[in-house]
Write a structure and sequence with these properties.
The chain is mainly alpha-helical. Helix content is about 55%, strand content about 10%. The structure holds zinc ion (ZN).
Length: about 80
């Protein structure tokens, strides 16, 4: 009925602060990178994450305004 086969638990890497599956014994993001490159990887990942969150927030706000306008127009027509 239910399968737990797709559930993946993860660890947070101490070097790059990214998550990797617990079934791997090493982080696949920063293995082979120097400490500086691992920190740079984490910084660029979080910068991209913040950028995409700002885009999502703007999209959600526009969607909310469209729904409010549709509701207001609907109530005015009643
Ligand atoms: Zn890592």
């Amino acid at each position: 009925m239910f399968s737990a086969g797709n559930i993946v638990s993860s660890n947070t890497c101490k070097r790059c602060k990214l998550e990797y599956p617990t079934r791997q014994n090493k982080c696949h993001h920063c293995t082979g990178l120097s400490d500086d490159k691992a920190a740079q990887l984490a910084n660029s990942y979080y910068a991209e994450l913040h950028k995409s969150n700002r885009k999502l927030r703007r999209t959600m706000l526009i969607g909310m305004l469209v729904v409010i306008n549709i509701l207001l127009i609907g109530f005015m027509l009643i």
